[in-house]
Amino acid sequence: MKNSPIIVFSKKQTAELQYREAAAPGEGEVLVKNKKSLISIGTEMTAFSGDYPKGSAWEEFFPYPFDAGYAAVGEIVEVGGNVDKSWLSKRVGNTGPHCRYAKVPVTDLRLVHRPEITDEEAVFYIIAQIVMRGIRMSKVGWGESAVVFGAGLLGHFAACFCRLSGAKPVIAVDTSDFRLAILPEDKSLIKINPLKEDLTALIKEHTRERLAGIVFEVTGNAKLIPDGCADKIMFQKFFLTLSINCL
Questions:
Q1: Fewest beta carbons within 10 Å, which of 40, 103, 134, 182?
Q2: What is the pTM assigned to this prediction?
């Protein structure tokens, strides 16, 4: 059997490097030898800290002990029953934790088609996938305005995908000028630091008093959203996307 190192949050604010024997894949599963895994700083630090309300979704999704991590890239080294052997040796993105060998359902795999994409780049697939899910659920499109709260990685993707979907204007809101500066230069992509400018006034100005058609909240702090600034709000987290109509 293969010995596999794995990072485990054994209890609140405690991370351990453990070693386990990698089990053979079962029906509909593959065994992936991972080369890179993605640290999702916001989600994993929250899970590590244990600083969330009792009975919340966080507590449900991250019970201790918890195998940390949910995105990795590696090579398939073994397939289970009812899995096509053509998967062997394929490079894939997968939902395994921070470990060397991960047993993963074949339905959770994302094939890395292009050889020029490095493992360091490919492992970010899960972030784009999370945001695309929210964009599709929102049905944002031509003729709508969108406001994205948070210009970190999730917010960056959200703003760009809104523009690709035809939203205009798209307003990105963050208290970090550095994050805002990384966003593409686009006259229909408005960047606002609410510590320096009147956010509500600028949203009204850029939407001709119509306010936002939809707001994407990707900071984890919905209190940042001014009352009455949008018709619909999408709360985006890795394990759920929640839509609320504000009409």
A1: 182
A2: 0.77
